[in-house]
């Protein structure tokens, strides 16, 4: 299987690319520049903020995994929030339209989303893939992010939106940031600690993505969250 990955230099992208190569698949990295790219790697260069992509190099792929987007870490200034929103919407729109125009289209696009689709706090309400969206900035981002893949759906390409909880791994993400603080005894619960804190391990995310690639009956939104409900205090 030949799989293109945007965001391939991130924590999930690196882990997924390694897993694909280990099982014999070919990885095509979609990158902004040739920096940190080895001579042996196949790459597609794009500049989503400028609407530019090497479209012909996306011909004949079996699958595309779209992970790219501005990190949500850091202070949310108005400029940061605009970057979070536009990087996801513009990037997904460009990729979707480009794939839809290919003569030899991929069978599937896995386009990242998040559990923040449901809003920041829904209390004890059970949330499934059919639940209504929530409110707030990140919910608005997730809704627009998923809608931006419309061109691919209209072209008859299978689309999967992993609504992923915060991914825990010492290799990156929020856990890498928090571990040093807790090891120094500076970690603490947030507020009452009674709010639910969805999470998932990196290895499980990678396994889920491999499943999405292999199972043609999986389509639409899929929640990726560890099965046991825990609160922030727990």
Give your account of this protein's structure.
The chain is about 30% helix and about 20% strand. The chain has six helices and eleven strands. Helix 2 (about 80-100) links the parallel strand 5 (about 65) and strand 6. The radius of gyration is 18 Å and the shape is globular.
What is the helix content? Answer: 25-40%
Main sheet: strands, sense, barrel: 9 strands, mixed
Kindly report the average pLDDT value. Answer: 90
Number of helical segments with 4 or more residues: 6
What does the overall shape look like? globular
Q: Specify Rg, calculated over alpha carbons.
A: 18 Å
Structural class: alpha/beta
Task: Detail the poorly predicted runs.
Answer: none
Note the beta-strand portion.
15-25%
Secondary-structure element pattern, one letter each = EHEEEEHEEHHEEHEHE
Distance between the termini: 41 Å
Number of strands: 11
Please write out the topology.
Layout (H helix, E strand, L loop, with lengths): L1 E5 L4 H12 L3 E6 L10 E6 L4 E2 L9 E4 L11 H23 L7 E4 L1 E2 L22 H11 L2 H5 L3 E7 L2 E2 L4 H11 L16 E2 H13 L5 E5 L10
Parallel strand pairs: 1-2, 1-5, 2-3, 5-6, 6-8, 7-8, 8-11, 9-10
Antiparallel strand pairs: 3-4
Helix pairs in contact: 1-6, 2-3
């Amino acid at each position: 299987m030949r799989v293109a990955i945007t965001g391939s230099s991130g924590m999930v992208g690196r882990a997924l690319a390694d897993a694909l190569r280990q099982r014999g698949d070919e990885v095509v990295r979609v990158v902004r520049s040739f920096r940190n790219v080895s001579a042996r790697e196949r790459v597609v260069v794009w500049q989503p903020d400028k609407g530019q992509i090497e479209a012909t190099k996306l011909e004949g792929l079996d699958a595309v995994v779209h992970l790219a987007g501005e990190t949500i870490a850091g202070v949310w200034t108005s400029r940061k929030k605009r970057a979070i929103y536009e990087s996801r919407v513009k990037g997904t729109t460009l990729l979707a339209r480009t794939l839809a125009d290919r003569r030899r289209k991929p069978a599937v696009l896995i386009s990242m989303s998040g559990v923040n689709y449901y809003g920041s706090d829904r209390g004890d309400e059970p949330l499934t893939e059919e639940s209504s969206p929530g409110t707030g900035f990140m919910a608005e981002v997730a809704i627009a992010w998923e809608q931006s893949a419309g061109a691919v759906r209209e072209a008859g390409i299978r689309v999967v939106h992993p609504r992923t909880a915060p991914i825990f791994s010492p290799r990156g993400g929020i856990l890498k940031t928090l571990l040093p603080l807790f090891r120094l005894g500076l970690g603490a619960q947030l507020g009452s600690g009674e709010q639910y804190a969805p999470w998932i391990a990196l290895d499980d995310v990678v396994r889920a993505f491999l499943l999405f690639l292999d199972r043609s009956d999986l389509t639409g939104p899929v929640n990726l969250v560890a099965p046991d409900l825990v609160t922030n205090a727990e």
